[in-house]
Amino acid sequence: MILEACVNSALSALEAQKGGADRVELCENMADGGCTPSAGAIRSARKHLTIPMFVMIRPRGSDFLYSDDEFLIMQNDILTAKELGADGVVFGILTPDGRMDLHRMEQLVKLARPMGITCHRAFDMTRDPFEATNNLIELGIDRVLTSGQAENALKGASLIHRLIAQSKGRIIIMPGRGVKEDTLIPIIRETGAEEYHMYLTQTVRSGMKFIREGLSMGHSNLLEYTYIQVDSQRVRNARELLDQIKIKSHDEPIENFP
């Protein structure tokens, strides 16, 4: 089973690799669900990673309906990711009526190849997930990241299972959002997926000695002096759990796992 670690920086990417992740999805601005990382972050991560690196192509937070200028930014960001050695890119564009924007998506697919392509959780905002899955298959997209159009992948597990059955191996359906150490086994049991997207982090204290009281750069003064980073030990725990399940599955059905 594949563990894709969502990472919010080049340093987090290295921590994910240290923990045994099979692949990373490099993003920035996680408060908005992840946006395109800087060229510097991509270059730094690529320099040190030995595992595949997919780069988020998302010019801003909020919805997935983009202006012509934003679409041009996405095209340029794909070319930058390709030039800097990314193994794949992650994107999704919708029409105003909640369907996949096939025309624009097709243009990005052609631009991205031969890199791998994942459609991100724009998929979860579509009006018809089965139609959207067929659309992505027709476009030749490699995988779709989804919570099953629910708050998290455990709540959306039933739909994810149905999408996997519908796809018949023509596209990878990868559960993501809320896939943690304590929900991993139930999600595996209910979906039968082969790839899992996990954001496993810790809060790290700043090394600053001097703190300017009463002044912040956008958060409370306390939060200014901490930051979020992927936790290699949590990734390692998830990796070991997936490996144990893989070994046990040869001897007993997944339904019997605790």
Describe this protein's structure.
This protein is 36% helix and 17% strand. It contains 8 helices and 10 strands. By secondary structure, it is α/β, with parallel strands linked by helices.
Count the DSSP helices: 8
Name of the top-level CATH class: Alpha Beta
Proportion of strand residues: 15-25%
- Taking Cα atoms only, what radius of gyration do you get, to the nearest Å? 19 Å
- Give the fraction of residues assigned to helices: 25-40%
Strand and helix map with partners:
Blueprint: E1 2-7, H1 10-19, E2 23-26, H2 39-48, E3 53-56, H3 68-83, E4 88-91, H4 102-112, E5 116-119, H5 129-139, E6 143-146, H6 157-167, E7 172-175, H7 184-191, E8 195-198, E9 201-205, E10 226-230, H8 232-248
Parallel strand pairs: 1-2, 1-8, 2-3, 3-4, 4-5, 5-6, 6-7
Antiparallel strand pairs: 9-10
What is this entry, summarized?
The chain has 258 residues and is of the alpha/beta class.
Give keywords.
258 residues; alpha/beta; TIM Barrel; two-stranded antiparallel sheet; 10 strands
